[in-house]
Amino acid sequence: MLFEIIKSVILGVVEGITEWLPISSTGHMILVNEFIGNEGFTASDLFLYVIQLGAILAVVTVFFRKLNPFAPSKTAEEKTDTWRMWFKVIAACIPAAVIGLLFNDYMDMIENWQVVSAMLILYGIAFIVVENRKKMPRVNGMDEMTYKTALLIGLFQVLSIVPGTSRSGATILGAVILGCSRETAAEFSFFLAIPVMFGVSLLKIATYDGALAGGDIAVLLIGMAVAYAVSLASIRFLMNYVRRHDFKAFGWYRIALGAAVILYFTVKTVL
User: Fold this and answer.
1) How far is CA 216 from CA 3, 9, 202, 228, 230, in A?
2) Spatial contact of 28 and 18, defined as CB atoms under 8 Å apart
3) Least confident of 83-92, 155-164, 187-196, 235-244
4) Number of domains observed in the structure of the chain
5) Measuring CA to CA, which residue among 190, 176, 192, 178 is closest to residue 148?
């Protein structure tokens, strides 16, 4: 039980950092579980997905006023803008809801280090190539984003069902390609996570075929609490970072991590 709690804390830290940065939480989770033991409840899909609820709560905390259409401090126009923003989020979630449900079981089957490392490297290169274009953004705020752009970002989000892609990575990359500023891309990616990750977590709970013991629930709650606390710092870090820097550093990091995954498992197989 103590070891499961320690693993839960470690995985909560990893989830809180990697869920919001465009570097693939799946890739990091695979490596962490490989090094600290890929067994027990903390290695189950239920734990690895439901722990994300803590991360979602962090988004709601950081952006509560912006997300809340009923905030008494908002003017009538600001409340209307908030509702429009939510409608854009919903529009962007439709592709993932439809396609994600269709391919959910298949993607679970191909969640291996070969696919994860390939996606880490591929999207790392994509970030570097896109940032080297140096094009001025056309969309500098959620109010400037059209429903068409939101829907197209949602199509990019569908790519994240492939393990190793990174949900935030796919949506941020797509938003930047479509002309959004880095800050708007990151923010919209955070907001998209709320219904998508909540829905995925509920799906994993509904389809879980095991029995949850009291200890498992305690371990899960600890992981969620840690993911929440770390996510608060990660979200604020990324929003401050993108105001002054581009995403190329994350691209190089993804390439290095993908190469490290290939090297590690290749050596392990040979030995």
Assistant:
1) 12, 13, 17, 18, 21
2) yes
3) 155-164
4) 1
5) 178
Residue 110 confidence (pLDDT) = 66
Distance in angstroms (rounded) separating the CA atoms of residues 202 and 133: 39
As a whole number, the mean pLDDT across the chain is: 88
Closest to 145 (Cα-Cα) out of 81, 97, 95: 81
26 and 164 in contact (C-beta within 8 Å)? yes
Q: How far apart (Å, rounded) are the C-alpha atoms in residues 87 and 195? A: 12
Q: At what angle are helices 147-158 and 167-177 packed, to 10 degrees?
A: 140
DSSP 160: G
Its pTM stands at 0.88
- The answer to whether 23 and 253 have CB atoms below 8 angstroms apart is yes
Here the tokens at position 203 are 């799906």
Which residues, at least 6 apart from 67, have a Cβ–Cβ distance to it below 8 Å? Answer: 60, 82, 86, 191, 194
**Containing structural domain, residue 47:** 2-270
